[in-house]
Amino acid sequence: VKVVESGGGLVQPGGSLRLSCSVSGFTSDDYAIGWFRQAPGKAREGVGCIFISDNQTFYDDSVKGRFTISRDNGKNTVSLEISNLRTEDTAVYYCAADRGCSLTPAWWGQGTQVTVSS
Hints:
Elements: E1 2-6, E2 9-11, E3 17-24, E4 32-38, E5 45-51, E6 57-59, E7 67-71, E8 77-82, E9 91-98, E10 107-108, E11 112-116
Parallel strand pairs: 2-11
Antiparallel strand pairs: 1-3, 3-8, 4-5, 4-9, 5-6, 7-8, 9-10, 9-11
């Protein structure tokens, strides 16, 4: 299984950003993609997850309303859209894959840096 993120960068507070996660190697839709982030000096935290089979999503309470996870139709790509970015959203964002939503998924991407600063 291969997982690749893209789309990070520098964004001003209040702005929006879309991250993408491309997954290959699964032979069916029976898997899930989770998004995680790790801010400087802090532990990694999960922000949300999507089941590929039915597009059901789950979010951490801390990001509900600003983070949206979706699957690109017909593609093995999942997006994380973040709106109203805050400086505290600055982190390395990772996506990861497993058979279900997990805090310790088996397959990880390399991470992409998101910096929120004016």
